[in-house]
Amino acid sequence: MSAVATRSIAERLSSAGTANALELRGVTKLFGALAALTDISLSVSPGERRAVLGSNGAGKTTLFNCITGDFLPTSGTIRLFGEDVTRFPAHERIRRGLRRTYQISQLFPGLSVLDNVYLACCGVSRSRFSFIRPRRDDALLATAEQLTEAVHLRDVRDIKVAVLSYGQQRQLEIALALAGAPRFVLFDEPAAGLSPTERRELVEILTNLPGHMGFIIIEHDMDVALRVAERVTMMHNGRIFKEGLPEEIEADPEVQALYLGGGHA
């Protein structure tokens, strides 16, 4: 291999290692005359756990939709691990290690927990179009079993999803998002509708994710969000108006005014 080729590879590896996991610059999303997002600039480091907070209508889910490719931004750029994915469709972003959960569970209720996770693993593998029944030593099946255990569903792995509690279904969604060893995950209100006990379990699951796996969590429950996040971004009316450490955000009077109904001028 030539010295030029070797240097080129080294440069690419070096730049990939220093790139942010996610970087948005000037992202705006318009729906007609309505600006759902306005000039959003946001950087998240590899392995970082970030919370995005804000009241209903702040633009949080629209932000996720732009990051995942469900919506294309009206203007601005989105980079994933240094690569410009602004105009990439959702499946191309998934191939690059991005995953997401949704506010409304999207599961196969007639199948077992393990079958749901196995199908998710198949869906992001090269053998996803295979119709051969898996063997007991199938690598994807083993991975599905590991993910089922990671989200605390081992005891109900053979139970149909339809009879799971709501909290267990939310845990299962996390397992599906973790299929294929993603590099970055977007969690959209995973604590919504959970009991206090289920929320504590959710915190444990998110805290114990592999250290290299960064994520952004959208959450109305500040207690959950601030316990799992290293840094917090506050949104209001489609804009970012505050960023900081969890303790800084929790003590901020403007943040308290938003969550206690005082609003933000």
From TrEMBL:
SUPFAM superfamilies assigned:
P-loop containing nucleoside triphosphate hydrolases
Q: From its record, what is one biological process in GO terms? A: L-alanine transport
GO MF terms here are: ATP binding; ATP hydrolysis activity; L-isoleucine transmembrane transporter activity; L-phenylalanine transmembrane transporter activity; L-valine transmembrane transporter activity
Locate the transmembrane regions by residue number.
none
Per the record, the domain of life is Bacteria
Against Pfam families, the record matches this protein to: ABC_tran
Write down the CDD domains for this protein, in alphabetical order: ABC_Mj1267_LivG_branched
- Matches recorded under InterPro entries: AAA+_ATPase (IPR003593), ABC_AA/LPS_Transport (IPR051120), ABC_transporter-like_ATP-bd (IPR003439), P-loop_NTPase (IPR027417)
Q: Where is the ABC transporter domain?
A: 22-262
Keyword annotations for this protein?
A: ATP-binding, Nucleotide-binding, Transport
Supply the Gene3D superfamilies for this chain.
P-loop containing nucleotide triphosphate hydrolases (3.40.50.300)
Q: Which GO terms describe its cellular component?
A: plasma membrane
* The protein's name in its UniProt record: ABC transporter ATP-binding protein
Native species: Lichenifustis flavocetrariae
